[in-house]
User: What shape does this take?
Amino acid sequence: MVNKVYGIGVGPGDYKLLTLKAVEILKKVDTIFVPISKEGKESYAYNIIKPILDENSKNIVKLLFPMSKNKEYLKKYWDEGFNKVINCDGDVAIITIGDPTLYSTFSYLWKKLKENNIDVKIINGIPSPMACAGLLNMPLVEGDENIAILPQGRDLEKIIDKFDTIVVMKTKKLGDILRNIPNLDDNYIIGIVSKGFCSDEYIQYGKLSEINFDEVNEYLSLAIIKRVRE
Amino acid sequence: MVNKVYGIGVGPGDYKLLTLKAVEILKKVDTIFVPISKEGKESYAYNIIKPILDENSKNIVKLLFPMSKNKEYLKKYWDEGFNKVINCDGDVAIITIGDPTLYSTFSYLWKKLKENNIDVKIINGIPSPMACAGLLNMPLVEGDENIAILPQGRDLEKIIDKFDTIVVMKTKKLGDILRNIPNLDDNYIIGIVSKGFCSDEYIQYGKLSEINFDEVNEYLSLAIIKRVRE
Assistant: This one.
């Protein structure tokens, strides 16, 4: 049976954004579990860590987590993943894009491992909101500012006046939502990163009226909406 | 005059949480600027990176940023820091605890460097909310949950019912604020990390009534308040 499970964040896409600790543990564990969203598809998280692994030196096992919001349907895959993990010998790592504590596919396994008293240790990675702010060369928050992070921009119009910065994790329909908020063009700067850290990375920065929402990839896009202070 | 300025996040306290990229750049720049809050005081950020630097191999320069909310008073120190940085030759790094995009002392210099068209590149570090969630062995958010990060807990009572998770960055008065919010004890779990990653790290996790707020160090404490779902 498994000894220790490391939930490792591999950051937004460049292996150089792995921490020293993540590299150390990835090199020493007996098995590395890598998430895929479809049978036969490559694992984005695995592609990130490949440069630091010795060829053929590791037991790499895929975990299939389909893209779906249906928890009943997904439960079967989480249970399968859980069984694969606990039946390993020694120490194992489960890798996840970004950071394990922020919207990671690892959350579901994590919960089940804890419920079953398995020893889990989190190794943080660079989260996407901070990585995108870095690419955009803009701070998320400073001083006494506050910030909200919303998946898909749900309820954005209800809270925008209460926050200095809002991060929207997937930007589908974001253009429509923002165009319905009064005075946004004058008071906010928007930064959008699509496919950040990929070869076809696409970065936009400006007022609402300057952003081209047609060019925004909805799944791998992240928006930072920041109130202009003076 | 300075060539390139790297704003480098050194993470929450363990040098092993530095990224490979941060280490690479810290080893190659000509000068490293380290923040201190008081003349004669040690730099916490510098202590983090010391293990990866060769003894005496670097030009280490202190930047004094006193703890104050008075922007007029601080402006003198920011201007001094700015002048020190731009008058360096070659590439320089300015280090900051956690991540440069999230409440960092680097923000003020960053703004001024950009205004003066200096080439700034951000190297992300592990931010404290994610690091503390990792220590607490709890996710910040998963699935369609949303999250707010508040300095000092300002307006917490106004937004708590709109968020699944709230992070409070400094926990002074947090106990008083939370005890005035109805039904909090039944519906929320609270994790508090004081002096995380230090030798006297102190971690609490439980319902409101189980937390001892007297034991919480106000400056170096971070709280995660999470709605219990079922």
About this structure: DSSP finds eight helices and ten strands in chain B. Chain B touches chain A through 59 residues (CB under 8 Å).
